[in-house]
Design brief:
It is built from twelve helices and twelve strands. The protein is α/β, with parallel strands linked by helices and about 325 residues long. The chain has an eight-stranded mixed β-sheet, with helices on both faces. It has a four-stranded antiparallel β-sheet with strand order 2-1-4-5, covered by helices on one side. Strand 9 and strand 10 form a beta hairpin. It is globular and about 65 Å long. Bound molecules: iron/sulfur cluster.
Length: about 325
């Protein structure tokens, strides 16, 4: 594994909406709503590593995925690609960084152009970006389809003529066709039946071995992430609250939110979980709780929790957590 991360986020935040300007404030206008979708996130991903990003719907993990993929700019902080600040890249380097990270989305139906045949969907980007010439396109598309577990003889068909699992494979073939160094998989198996989910996860595992792919695997389901990740980051209302190797997260989770998520993962063994399931709803990011965002739902909350933001810090080798309980231990 190279020492320089393929992608590195330092104090990255993303806000939607603009605070009122001086004139609006003078005129007494109502404050414009600002959503802090991502707050001061530090995260590094090395070549060949699969990092699982887990949290409930609305916690900001998809926004973070888009920041990593370069689809949207950060409001503050720095995103580095192979050690270089992305906002300072030349146009050519920025283009290659964008091609270097490809996204696979949750809903394969809406992420594929229904008017294009599979051959065009898979072959278009590598042709446009000069990765293949017109004479090699047919065989290149066949190879990409085979790699994603699809029969190339079906390449003249349209997306609606495939099942949900096959459409997700088309999305994977399209993403891999531009030879990315990294994938951002945003809830890529969430819309699929459980048996199909397992097939697509196995495909990811095979591709990872064959292509040494780096991956940010985003999911609300800790159980899915367990099978694919080397490392897991847990996100709550825009902040990373715990980060450790998958082995540590599943054997000795530190943060009460991670423990609550873990309690909800179905297990074959009948032993009761050591932790209580999560209670209540995720608060609105328009009006997040003060201090530790998790305090209204946390069974261990105490007075400091509503007043002071806990810092994400190393609490054991390779394990970072943001919880005031660690200062008391
Ligand atoms: Fe719970 Fe307090 Fe830790 Fe937040 S800081 S997780 S509220 S104990």
């Amino acid at each position: 594994m190279s020492d320089t991360p393929i992608i590195e986020l330092e104090k990255v935040s993303k806000r939607f909406g603009q605070p009122n300007g001086a004139l609006s404030r003078l005129l007494g206008a109502k404050p414009a709503p600002v959503v802090q979708a991502v707050s001061d996130v530090d995260l590094s991903i090395h070549t060949g590593e699969v990092v699982g990003l887990v949290g409930e719907s609305g916690c900001g993990k998809s926004t973070l995925g888009r920041l990593v993929a370069g689809i949207m700019p950060a409001s503050s902080g720095q995103v580095r690609w192979h050690g270089q600040n992305r906002s300072g890249l030349s146009a050519a380097d920025e283009k290659s960084a964008k091609l270097g990270v490809q996204m696979i989305f949750q809903d394969p139906q809406s992420s594929l152009n229904p008017r294009l045949r599979v051959a065009e969907i898979v072959g278009e980007a590598p042709r446009v970006h000069g990765l293949i010439g017109p004479e090699g396109e047919d065989s290149y598309v066949d190879a990409q389809m085979r790699q994603a577990g699809l029969d190339p003889s079906l390449k003249r068909r349209y997306p609606h003529q495939f099942s949900g699992g096959q459409r997700q494979r088309i999305g994977i073939a399209r993403a891999l066709a531009v030879q990315p160094a990294m994938l951002v998989c945003d809830e890529s198996v969430a819309a699929l039946d459980v048996s199909i989910q397992a097939q697509i996860i196995n495909l990811f595992l095979d591709l990872r071995t064959d292509l040494n792919l780096t991956c940010l695997f985003i999911s609300h389901d800790l159980g899915v992430v367990e099978h694919v990740s080397d490392r897991v980051a847990i996100m709550y209302l825009g902040r990373i609250v715990e980060e450790a190797s998958a082995e540590i997260v599943f054997s000795r989770p530190n943060h009460p939110y991670t423990q609550a998520l873990l309690a909800e993962v179905p297990r074959l063994e009948t032993r009761k979980s050591r932790f209580g399931a999560i209670k209540g709803e995720l608060p609105s990011p328009l009006n997040p709780p003060t201090g530790c965002h998790f305090h209204p739902r946390c069974p261990h909350s105490f007075s400091r929790c509503s007043q002071e933001v806990p810092v994400l810090r190393e609490i054991a080798s390779g394990q970072r957590s943001a919880c005031h309980l660690n200062d008391q231990a």
